[in-house]
Design a protein that fits this description.
89 residues; alpha+beta; 4 strands; DUF6993 domain-containing protein; DUF6993
């Protein structure tokens, strides 16, 4: 995930949700296991960071893009089998 997100950031430091989704699914992450945060707030402002997460077994591989840097970590999946709380898709 780090390499893919790094390529996305290199092409666009403020990528859209669709850019991240397309890159990760093209790299083989199944769309059904992928969650990507919104690129804008409900009031239309840019977000400070973007997150993407993919469920693997009972863990979430979570990548964050902030200030043109990518950070990846692995955390347990939530009890519902997802990685994000709320309506992020």
């Amino acid at each position: 995930m780090a390499d893919v997100l790094g390529s996305v950031v290199a092409a666009n430091p403020k990528p859209a949700t669709a850019d991240i989704t397309s890159a990760l699914t093209a790299a083989g992450v199944p769309a059904r296991s992928l969650e990507v945060s919104a690129g804008r707030t409900p009031t239309g402002l840019e977000v400070d960071s973007m997150e993407a997460a993919a469920v693997q077994a009972k863990e979430c591989v979570i990548g964050q893009i902030r200030d043109r840097k990518v950070t990846v970590t692995v955390l347990p999946a939530l009890s519902n089998g997802k990685c994000f709380v709320g309506a992020a898709g």
